[in-house]
Amino acid sequence: MGDRVNAVFVFGSNLAGRHGKGAALDARFKHGAQLGVGEGRTGNAYAIPTKDAQLRTRTIEDVHSSVETFKDYARANPGLVFQVTRVGCGLAGFTDDQIGPMFSNAPDNCQLPDEWTCFR
Questions:
Q1: Closest Cα to residue 66, out of 117, 12, 112?
Q2: Handedness of CA 110, 72, 93, 11 (dihedral sign)
Q3: What CATH superfamily is the domain 4-119?
Q4: pLDDT truncated to tens, each residue of the chain (120 aa)?
Q5: Do residues 63 and 48 lie in contact, with contact meaning Cβ atoms separated by under 8 Å?
């Protein structure tokens, strides 16, 4: 998984930044994700919002936009290793076939879930 100091845990979040369940809860307690921050990097975590502030699933287009923002961040930070979880495929209810292709052109410093390697 790379050097722990340079590793960033990438998880699905909500725009309210509640981080109360699933990978978001792990991000909060194990990787320094801050409550109230629903998108972007805090600590050794990067939040990609898949739900809105009222915990409703966002549109696939909105999620795609946030994934593009993340990939730009990853490209701008080549010294970091981004450990991407199955963003949106848990509580938000998206499938691997919906989200995985969004990461097809992710930079090499992104470690994708096994379920998504076929989309590279």
A1: 12
A2: positive
A3: Leucine Aminopeptidase, subunit E, domain 1 (3.40.220.10)
A4: 445 569 999 999 999 999 999 999 999 999 999 999 999 999 999 999 999 999 999 999 999 999 999 999 999 999 999 999 999 999 999 999 999 999 999 999 999 999 998 888
A5: yes
